[in-house]
Specification:
The complex is a heterotetramer. Chain A folds into 2 domains: 54 residues, no CATH class; 82 residues, Glutaredoxin (3-Layer(aba) Sandwich), CATH 3.40.30. The longest helix of chain A is centred in the C-terminal third of the chain and has 14 residues. Chain A contains 7 helices and 4 strands. Chain B is of the alpha/beta class. In chain B, a hairpin with a 6-residue loop joins strand 16 and strand 17. In chain B, helix 18 packs across helix 22. Chain B is globular, with a radius of gyration of 26 Å. Chain B starts with 6 loop residues before the first helix and ends with a strand. Chain D is an alpha+beta fold. Chain D has 3 domains: 80 residues, Ubiquitin-like (UB roll) (Roll); 44 residues, no CATH class; 65 residues. In chain D, a hairpin with a 2-residue loop joins strand 3 and strand 4. Classes of the chains: A alpha+beta, B alpha/beta, C alpha/beta, D alpha+beta. Chains A and B meet through helix 2, helix 4, helix 5 and helix 6 of A and helix 2, strand 14, strand 18, helix 18 and helix 24 of B.
Chain lengths: 156, 643, 824, 212
């Protein structure tokens, strides 16, 4: 399904060596490797010329960076205002119960990562859950469970 | 096609595009709402169906994947040209029928037309949702193919840039924007022309580069107008920025786009590439000697980066922590150079102002709040989606007429405008007894005063501020009787707590502290005096916080205390949540008359506290129940009720 | 330069200004500033005295600047708070007025006086005045040394020639810095070496190839073939590096301005114990070769990441990575293989979910094992405990692949030795020298890079090289622009006094005193030492232990130390006690005690120093001579000296002082060394209180002429190079591992030391006696006056006579002793 | 004004609590107040580093014409004729709440208790999460490590309520030189307990730069 990953050097070469590109590089590495390993963090710091402490604070400050490996499937439960009003919170709790992990965590087998987001912009279909790149609009505990089972089977 | 070296070459290209033979067009909305309902599959189905049916090349309809059409609750939306038919809730399975019936035979598929109160509407313009809208910025969104610059040129893109480059001095551009009365659409409502003028003055005193930034870090939950613009009409933003750059002498622009908008980033990147290829960005634009280029910065998931100083820190590659102003970005922004930051929607307004003139723009809307504003109308409203209305339209018109009012039998309770930093304003006019203005006892100014019924409240910067809310970036959430204000206030606080950068103490600790109060209230704990304490804590945040996030964060709490003190008291004194939301104050019951004993609820109950035999009415063990609501969600016959 | 300026070269006389800070209310009401001002105005007046609410804030700084400008002040005392935090601010504010950092001293009235004592404000003013007077003596003795600008010549030499060296050379060349790359082998070999060393980094090889080509083509890089490295001499900006010629027959010198040592490690095969034989049980190195040959490889291939079991945990992630790339390579190119990777479940694995999905796709088994039981290699299978359920499992194999062992290469070790670097037990050359100034952070890293210093893959080695080169380039550019200055406080050598005993070099922890490594051709060992001003951290242990006193710490001299302690000791009341506190620990803990609201005996006076190692024993002697009744030295915890061995050296010195004190007939307890840390202000307080109690029991020294004479002798004896040498050799060496100094026979050693001290103490007393009496003395005069045993005294005097320290004459068959005539 | 050494043109005359004061361009309101012996409480302000404005205890209410604002005095320069109030109700409201929340946030800190008591806050209504906590995340340690020491050995991780002082990967940082400046600037003494997590065990530091 996934094609070969971009080499870290290829990613680094996309940007000139200037501190302003720290976030861009972190994003590209995150996108490519789904997390930022200690090794990559050091390489990025060297490339843009910032101390690791700065990269660390940036990588932990922004929500889209993960310093631990993410699961193969990402489940994002929308907790935007409308989704909240329409029960997004209950969906998130149900996911936590089903997967046995808290929000922001990854299952031990690196299959699923559960996250909540503050609005996916599909408020008209609230509550919304995003599984990898697919939306599940007007989600209920029932249809969500079904979808999770499908995506789990589908990968093997 | 190579770089355009002069204005004449651009116009000849435009003429060439316009002269192309007319073809039928199917516009499939690929806005976020429709996408979530499978719009991409609909579009693929159209392409496949046309391929399959081998329609002749000259009449072969063009499938355009466009930006958001606005009427999200009816997605997937499909607009047909030239018939002007407007199909709603289109599923991939409907596509062959549309192709066969409408495209080939010219017949209308009645069941896909929008229907309301028995009436069916053939074209979008007739639909009540669109009728009261005044589309300026969204005019091309949904019309053009955002990935095709020629389509944008056809619709008039870069006409204003040419005008700004050839017919106006930099001063005249700024004057035009000033006279038009354009105010920042990002929330602050600061006069744009004034800001630009400041940058020019500061650059004159302290020569060197200046930068312009478009803020597309649209983080408010429930708001997606910037996304619609960026995904639907990216060239409007680029053109606006280029005009601004021309006026201020900037050569580099930054477009800061929210992390969660990968489509917007992709669309903008393609648009920038196409504009560069045509020489509409880059060196010596259209042979006028004007240089300007735009770089995209993706946000990395921090709401606080919508704050301008935090956004600049983020562009510079640092943690998005705001810094105290002064100095303002117009004095010392990116790399300590004067920098102007405007919202994406503001930039998108600029070409229209230059194109139609300041007077025309000032004529739309009301004095001090000119032009149109896009709102995302969501929540407990029948027609939800993006709406663009002239400033000064009443809230009633938006909610009742465009939105079609509250669905079902519930009553319209309140509107929350301006996102998490906005206020909750009640639908019903409430005469506030003087003792409710208790905030004064700590020497604080009263905040927010509801001058009239919400129905008649004009939606403009000043009226909303007077009511205790803000325009914000344009979120508008409709609440009904089943929505609890304590819960909503708590929700916003939790959101902001998560998004607070944590730099200043009032915001970092205060948002947590305010939540503690509200958590207590939602559990029926606390004393009425705590409500005043909460309000006074809110004022400490307003006064003490460093940036806009903390300073406006208490708004939902302060306004809800002001307007819905009775509801707070119901929680604390009567231990009741009138809306039936606060988990600790409600119970789930199974209506034995409705329950058909399907056992689904018992199977799904995480506490295994639902008992009942197959095909017999079930009951919930209230002691073990954690009120997770699963039973209510899974019940196929709606037998689970909240008491 | 206008001619008028060059006429007057002499330094202007000191003009002192004292600024008393109120620190809001943290100093002012507690210490009576009016009384303090009056005390300071008493003769000898300190000059300008001014009280400021906050001297460190802009309004205060404005007033200080105004006073400096109006009165031409060139010495400043800020009597406020911690120097560590605020000295820099005053330096920066006053830089424009021509004041150097060493001309500003800070006295911590807040944390050492106002906030730790509860006494009448006027009394605390007295204490403050004494501390300020001590600082006054320090500053007035200061003779500002001229700033040393670093002259830089020659290219940057990158030693090593490995992957990291190429990374560094590329960066330097890219920055336009001239680079010299001496190679001990043909550049074409480097690729071959990289293939062998960086296993499985297949995707980086072509990148490296490009890079080598780029470096070779660069006009800024001069590659040259050399033999092995022989010697490095010189200092930053001007090194001479000697190599053997490629044929080993002659020597070749190269000039270089800076040196980067970029050293790669080497791979060693696994020990044969696990069955490694190069056929069925192989190392990753051999598999790598096999893969490159194109096989044949088939059957069940098991990678066992056994670095943890082999005691090389740092290499485990690297072995895992190389195993992973080889495993994927095998599955893609050798379909007849089945691959599994067996690894310790506790090791950090560099594989993410992407890799795991890929492993499933390619059918590579990732098998973690429980490390409580070591996997056992059997002939057909390897048995291990499964990590998940800890049950025993078997894994059949046809080819078992072990991790290689990694160690710095022989060449790397040799280079490190010549540069005076240390090779750690784990066989890595990692080093984090103390960093006192930002410039030195750069230099600290300059010395060693490459995989020999830090386990890394090919990419990591390249990036290490680049990082260091980037910083070096910035430094070189600064030097070339003439903007690089040595710090103000550094050791300088008076080469006329240096006897090349090399003690300083052994003491030096910053590699500054080693411009000469080993003997110099034609000069042998006898080359006076030099100090590399860019490497010196100004700690000063070297200066304080030089037997000949040939080393001086610029702007922080022994004379200044002596003047300061003399001023304070003279002013102390009989029940008052003084001490030294290291700025990193003792003084820092004292500051902290003030900040944390602790309190202690106000009769204790603390003088902060950069490092206790800077306190020459002479300075300690001087305190007693000038009237101190006791001396407490508070330094870092054992093993925790921030420089290197300052605390150890102080330990030895205090030990000598104790011996000398008892020779004087005084209690050994009058001097004490204590340990502290900034995180332990409460322990600092306990230390002070208990020492004060001891001192109260001992009471003041009854200072009659006899005692003063003995103390004078104590002071004099500490100047004697023999004493200093013995003390010096008892000091701890960087390679010693026990604290305190490891000695084979401590009792015997101590006996020798005592004897030497006794003799030198006697000698000093005799000389003083002779000077006082101004006439020839008989043995009985001496034994009576000094109260010593006749036989012993006779022996000592005889030796003194032989050494020409005294003249022995005979009158009427009686021996008379006197000072030798001639120049004394 | 009394200061005669300054020419009238570059002096900014304004009022703090009704008292006429003078400042030179570049001074902040806080510096001017302190120079005039007017007390304004602070936690995150230290003269050795550039002000950051995190504790917000130094807020003052200012009136300039009709414009009334509550601003931090450590960051804002005065303008001529500005009226500054250091003890207004709005100011006190901010301070009291911040201190009350700090009592819950840093319950172990003696300094916070003392400061709070001085402002009449002795008890807290907020939940205490960690009874041992002393750190208020004022950022002084991070600033001093960057600006004065220049080694950037420690930093903040995460954000908002989860914001925490740490080193990358929460392991002792080799960049740390163990100078302890972070401990000295710490307003609550939290770093005293935490220093070892940054510098590690000094006696085990690699290289003979640290004894081993």
């Amino acid at each position: 399904m996934q094609t070969a990953r971009q080499d870290i050097d290829t990613i680094l070469e996309r940007y000139p060596r200037h501190p302003q590109h720290l976030i861009n590089l972190l994003q590209d590495v995150q996108a490519e490797y789904s997390y930022i390993s200690p090794e990559h963090l050091t390489l990025i710091c060297d490339h843009v010329g910032v101390p690791v402490t700065q990269a660390w604070s940036v990588a932990t400050f922004y929500k889209s960076f993960s310093l631990e490996p993410r699961g193969e499937h990402e489940i994002k439960v929308c907790l935007g205002t409308t989704c909240h009003l329409k029960g997004g919170q209950r969906l998130a709790e149900a996911c936590e119960r089903n997967l046995g992990v808290a929000r922001g965590q990854t299952t031990a087998d690196l299959r699923f990562t559960l996250d909540t987001v503050n609005c996916l912009g599909s408020c008209a279909l609230a509550p919304v859950v995003m599984i990898d790149n697919d939306y599940l609009g007007r989600a209920t505990i029932r249809n969500l469970k079904k979808r999770l089972d499908e995506s789990d089977d589908g990968s093997d | 096609m190579g770089k355009l070296k002069s204005v004449a070459e651009l116009e000849s290209l435009r003429a060439q595009v316009l002269a192309a033979p007319d073809r039928p067009v199917v516009r499939v909305c690929l806005g976020p709402g429709c996408l979530a309902q499978g719009a991409d599959k609909v579009s693929r189905a159209f392409k496949a169906a046309i391929q399959e049916r081998n329609i002749l090349a000259d009449v072969q309809p063009l499938i355009k994947e466009t930006g958001c059409h606005g009427f999200c609750s009816q997605g997937t939306l499909v607009n047909l040209y030239p018939s002007d038919l407007f199909y709603v809730q289109v599923k991939p399975a409907d596509v062959p029928e549309i192709v066969d019936q409408t495209l080939r035979e010219g017949k209308v598929v009645e069941r896909l037309l929008y229907a309301d109160n028995g009436a069916r509407y053939r074209s979008a313009a007739e639909v009540p949702f669109y009728k009261l809208q005044h589309k300026v910025i969204l005019k091309n969104v949904g019309l053009i193919d955002p990935l095709d610059i020629e389509d944008a040129l056809k619709a008039g893109a870069y006409r204003s840039l040419v005008k700004a480059l050839t017919q106006k001095t930099t001063d005249q551009i700024i004057d035009t924007v000033t006279i038009a009365g354009l105010r920042g659409r990002g929330g602050g409502g600061f006069p744009t022309g004034f800001k630009w003028r400041k940058v020019v003055e500061n650059a004159r005193e302290n020569p060197g580069p200046v930068f312009i930034v478009a803020n597309g870090d649209e983080g408010d939950p429930g708001a997606f107008m910037d996304r619609a613009i960026m995904e639907g009409d990216p060239h409007a933003v680029l053109e606006g920025m280029a005009i601004g750059a021309r006026a201020m002498g900037a050569e580099q622009g930054y477009l800061y786009v929210r992390a969660e908008y990968p489509f917007a980033v992709r669309t903008l990147n393609i648009a920038i590439e196409q504009a560069r290829a045509l020489g509409l960005l880059g060196q010596d634009i259209l042979g006028t000697g004007f240089n300007f280029d735009v770089q995209i910065n993706r946000g990395a998931g921090a709401f606080v980066c919508g704050e301008e100083t935090a956004l600049l820190a983020s562009i510079e590659g640092r943690v998005g922590e705001p810094v105290t102003r002064p100095p303002y970005p117009v004095e010392q922004g990116l790399w300590d150079r004067p920098t102007v930051i405007n919202n994406v929607e503001t930039w998108a307004n600029v070409p229209h102002i230059i194109d139609h003139g300041a007077q025309w723009y000032a004529g739309v809307g009301v004095p001090h709040s000119t032009g149109t504003k896009i709102f995302s109308l969501v929540g407990k409203v029948k027609n939800s989606g993006l709406v663009e209305v002239p400033m000064g339209i009443t809230l009633g018109a938006i909610v009742e007429e465009i939105g079609g009012g509250v669905p079902g039998k519930e009553r319209f309770k309140a509107v929350q405008t301006g996102g998490p930093s906005g206020g909750i304003i009640p639908y019903e006019f409430k005469e506030l007894p003087p003792e409710d203005l208790k905030l004064d006892k700590v020497g604080l100014q009263p905040r927010g005063f509801m001058p009239m019924e919400l129905k008649n409240l004009p939606v403009d910067f000043d009226s909303l501020a007077q009511a205790g809310s803000i325009m914000g970036s344009g979120g508008m959430i409709v609440m009904d009787d089943r929505d609890c204000v304590v819960d909503v206030a708590r929700y916003f606080l939790r959101f902001l707590e998560e998004e607070s950068c944590g730099k200043c103490l009032p915001c970092r600790l205060g948002l947590k502290g305010m939540q503690e109060f509200l958590n207590n209230f939602s559990q029926g704990k606390g004393a009425p005096a705590d409500i005043d304490a909460l309000a006074s804590l809110g004022m400490a945040l307003v006064d003490g916080s460093l940036c806009g996030l903390g300073r406006t964060a208490p708004n939902p709490v302060l306004t809800s205390i002001r307007y819905f003190r009775d509801e707070y008291l119901a929680h604390i004194v009567d231990h009741k949540c009138p809306a039936g939301v606060c988990r600790d104050l409600i119970t789930y019951r199974i209506d034995a008359d409705i329950c058909n004993g399907c056992t689904l609820c018992a199977k799904n109950c995480p506490q295994a506290c639902i008992a009942g035999a197959n095909k017999e009415p079930h009951t919930i063990d209230q002691d073990a129940c954690i009120r997770c609501g699963v039973c209510m969600d899974v019940c196929p016959v709606d037998a689970v009720v909240v008491a | 330069m206008s001619p008028t300026q060059s006429v007057k070269p002499e330094t202007p006389a000191p003009r002192l200004g004292v600024f008393l800070c109120e620190c809001g209310t943290r100093i002012a009401p507690g210490v009576d500033h009016t009384v303090l001002t009056q005390l300071l105005d008493e003769p000898p007046g300190v000059g300008h005295v001014e009280t400021l609410p906050f001297s460190c804030l802009r309004p205060g700084l404005a007033r200080i600047k105004a006073a400096v400008a109006a009165k031409g002040l060139n010495r400043l005392i800020i009597a406020g708070c911690e120097s560590r935090l605020l000295h820099k601010k005053f330096e920066q504010a006053l830089e424009g007025l021509g004041l150097a950092e060493t001309q500003i001293d800070m006295v911590n009235l807040r944390d050492h006086v106002a906030r730790v004592h509860s006494a009448a404000p006027a009394e605390l003013a007295q204490k403050g005045a004494k501390l300020i007077r001590a600082s006054q003596a320090w500053l007035e003795t200061l003779k500002p040394a001229p700033r040393i600008r670093i002259d830089y010549q020659g290219p940057v030499m990158v030693l090593g020639g490995g992957v990291a060296a190429y990374g560094a050379a590329q960066e330097l060349a890219g920055q336009g810095v001239d680079t010299l790359l001496p190679l001990t082998y043909d550049p074409a070999e480097e690729m071959q070496r990289a293939h062998q060393l960086y296993l499985g980094d297949y995707h980086s090889y072509d990148r490296l190839e490009r890079l080598i080509g780029e470096v070779e083509a660069s006009p800024n890089v001069n590659q040259t073939r050399v033999g092995s490295l022989l010697q490095v001499s010189g200092k930053f900006g001007d090194y001479t590096v000697t190599f053997a010629s490629p044929d080993g027959q002659s020597r070749v010198d190269f000039k270089a301005g800076a040196i980067i040592a970029a050293l790669d490690w080497e791979h060693v095969h696994q020990l044969p114990e696990l069955g490694h034989g190069g056929t069925r049980v192989v190392c990753q190195i051999e598999l790598n070769e096999l893969i490159q040959q194109g096989g044949p490889i088939e059957g069940r291939v098991i990678f066992w990441i056994n670095d943890l079991d082999a005691g090389q945990p740092f290499a485990a992630p690297l072995s895992m990575k190389s195993a992973w790339t080889m495993a994927t390579h095998l599955r893609e190119n050798f379909p007849a293989t089945q691959v599994a990777i067996l690894y310790d479940s506790t090791m950090p694995t560099p594989l993410g979910s992407f890799d795991r999905a890929r492993a499933r796709e390619l059918g590579i088994a990732l098998t973690p094992y429980d490390n409580h039981v070591h996997p056992t290699v059997k002939n057909e299978y390897i048995s291990y405990n499964r990590a998940t359920d800890r049950t025993e499992q078997d894994l059949a194999w046809d080819l078992l692949v072990l991790s290689p062992r990694r160690a710095p290469g022989a060449e790397a070790l040799k280079t490190a030795k010549i540069l005076g670097l240390e090779v750690k037990e784990e066989a890595f050359l990692d080093r984090s020298p103390q960093m006192v100034r930002p410039d030195q952070v750069v230099l600290g890293e300059k010395l060693m890079v490459g995989s020999a210093c830090q386990p890394c893959d090919l990419r990591g080695a390249l990036s290490q090289g680049r990082r260091v080169a980037e910083k070096t380039a910035a430094l070189v550019k600064k030097a070339l622009a003439g903007d690089l200055y040595a710090p103000q406080v550094i050791s300088t050598v008076d080469q006329s006094k240096c006897t090349v005993c090399t003690l300083c070099r052994e003491v030096c922890d910053c590699l500054a005193i080693q411009p000469v490594s080993g003997p110099v051709e034609g000069l042998g060992h006898n080359v006076p030492r030099m100090v590399d001003p860019m490497l010196c951290t100004g700690e000063g242990t070297c200066a304080a232990s030089c037997p000949e006193m040939a080393l001086t710490l610029a702007n922080c001299t022994r004379a200044q130390h002596e003047a300061r302690v003399a001023a304070l000791a003279r002013s102390l009341a009989p029940d008052e006690v003084m001490g030294f506190g290291c700025q990193w620990s003792g003084a820092a803990a004292a500051d902290q005690a003030g900040l944390r609201g602790l309190s202690y005996n106000r009769r204790f006076y603390l003088l902060p120093v950069r490092c206790l190692g800077q306190i020459d024993p002479v300075v300690m002697g001087r305190t007693f001579l000038e009237g101190a009744n006791g001396l407490l030295l508070i330094g870092c915890n054992p093993e925790e000296c921030h420089h290197s061995y300052g605390i150890d050296h102080t330990w030895s010195r205090v030990w000598v002082l104790k011996k000398l004190l008892s020779l004087c007939g005084l209690e050994r307890e009058r001097i004490a060394l204590a340990h502290s840390d900034i995180t332990q202000p409460d322990r600092f307080v306990t230390t002070v209180e208990s020492f004060m109690k001891t001192m109260a029991t001992l009471g003041p020294i009854q200072r009659d002429a006899e005692i003063q004479g003995r103390l004078q002798a104590l002071y004099d004896a500490l100047h004697v190079s023999r004493v200093r040498w013995v003390l010096g050799v008892s000091l701890r060496r960087p390679w010693e591992s026990a604290y305190p100094s490891h000695m084979p026979n401590p009792a015997a050693y101590d006996h020798t030391l005592t004897e030497i001290l006794t003799e030198e103490f006697f000698r000093a007393r005799v000389k003083n006696l002779m000077r006082q009496q101004g006439k020839l003395l008989q043995l009985s005069d001496i034994t009576q006056a000094l109260g010593v045993d006749e036989v012993q005294a006779h022996e000592y005097l005889k030796d003194m006579g032989y050494e020409g320290l005294i003249a022995i004459s005979f009158v009427n068959r009686n021996r008379f002793y006197g000072l030798p005539s001639g120049p004394q | 004004m009394s200061s005669s050494e300054n020419s009238a043109t570059d002096v900014i005359n304004f009022f703090i609590d009704g008292q006429p004061v003078a400042a030179e361009p570049g001074w902040t309101i806080l510096e001017t107040a302190r120079h005039h012996h007017i007390h304004i409480p602070t936690l995150c302000s230290h003269p050795a580093v550039t002000p950051w404005g995190s504790c917000r205890l130094c807020v003052v209410e200012t009136r300039y014409g009709k414009r009334v604002q509550v601003i931090p005095s450590c960051l804002n320069p005065p303008v001529a004729e500005l009226e500054v109030f250091t003890q207004s109700e709005r100011v006190k409201n901010v301070r009291r709440w911040v201190l009350e929340m700090l009592l819950a946030e840093c319950p172990a800190s003696r300094e916070i208790k003392k400061l709070a008591a001085a402002h009449g806050v002795t008890a807290t209504r907020f939940a205490i999460t960690d009874p041992e906590e002393e750190c208020l995340r004022c950022g002084l340690c991070v600033a001093v490590c960057n600006e004065v020491v220049g080694v950037q050995a420690l930093t903040f991780g995460s954000r908002g309520v989860k914001k925490v002082l740490e080193t990358p990967y929460r392991v002792p940082n080799n960049a740390c030189i163990g100078c302890g400046c972070c401990v000295s600037v710490c307003p609550t003494g939290a770093l005293q307990k935490r220093l070892d997590t940054v510098r590690g065990d000094l006696s085990r530091r690699t290289g003979h730069g640290f004894a081993h």
